[in-house]
Amino acid sequence: MSANDHWLQPIDLNGRHARLVSLAHEHEQALAEAVRDGALWELWYTSIPSPQAMGAEIERRLALQTSGSMLPFTVLDATGRVVGMTTYMNVDAQHRRVEIGSTWYAASAQRSALNTECKLMLLTHAFETLGCIAVEFRTHFFNQQSRRGIERLGAKFDGVLRSHQRMADGSLRDTCVYSITAAEWPTVRTHLRFQLGKPRAH
Hints:
The chain is α+β, with helices and mostly antiparallel strands and about 200 residues long.
């Protein structure tokens, strides 16, 4: 058992627009249906599981949870419909750092209050319960939608890890790294709460 096991315990996080519940095998069918909304696995610059690979992806994430390096969640919308996945990953208990990543949402749930509230709940838990000194976000250099979303949260750009990972198709990924520090969190929290309070066009 690693130190991470004691620090990062499974938890459900509940908001007005979204719920984050501990990932479980019984979510496989609903997650496979959610990922079909937008055919998300076809985006070459992401690593989103296909419906057929969802069971293996759940197994992978739960194995990382067992090793203490990930805490995976299933994302539900306000109606209780399963709409995606997200995680705390690259967990470092000694230095009190986590990355929020391996996130995807059904197309119908994107560009909504759901993502903002999910990030607010995850960041609040990270800084105010776990006592993180920093929270990271990482994404593919070419994933402009993800990069804009991370920047809208208030995360600062740290730099690019060049030729950082090999993708499934053999191409090399340049990884953009962003972070929010504990000192920045109060301002980011105010910003996210303000964003959630704004009326949205439907």
